[in-house]
Amino acid sequence: MKTVLSILICFIISLSALPVQAEFSFSSTEPESKPTIAVLVGGQGAIRSNEKAMKIIQEKLEEKFPKAKFNLVTDSKLVQDALIFAEDEEVTDISQIKKGQLAKFGKERNFDYVISLILGMGHGRSGMNFWALNYDIDVDLQAKVVDVATAQYIYRQNIMGHGKSSAGIGMPSSVNAFAKATQACMETFCKEVNISPIKPVVPETAQ
User: Hey, what's the signal peptide range on this chain (predicted)?
Assistant: First the structure.
């Protein structure tokens, strides 16, 4: 039970660590032409305190989904909504959340797509070559992208990324190695995911 609660707390802390990308307003009287994407980020261990990794995630998302074409939502209001939703849905391990629940979360908040990125840290390995000490680590990114209107995945993969840090003097940085592994995961994710900049039309049966 302690492990489950720890994972959920890490998820909420990770969300609050993301910088604000969009304070999305639902009060506009003009039709919104850009799709709105909500991003939930979570993980275990170092993800809750690794600012470099969190910054990389945000930067890669901003590059993939620029403001001119998308509304990218990672703000503080989303943190509160995610916490309440997880409680209502009795979700204690965010990595086990189902596509139908992600679609429900998005529909209740007028999002077009919901992205869930859950990072799991593998076993770190220390070593030494002729020049320096090394620290290697693997990161497993559980990536889910749900189309809210259809409640179906448009992307679902577990992506592996490797990171390495070296130091000729002193100790190599596990923080840097984790950040590099996260970057590798995000580069793969952004390369493979395709979301149209045209706001989807919600089917009448889904309204």
Answer: 1-22
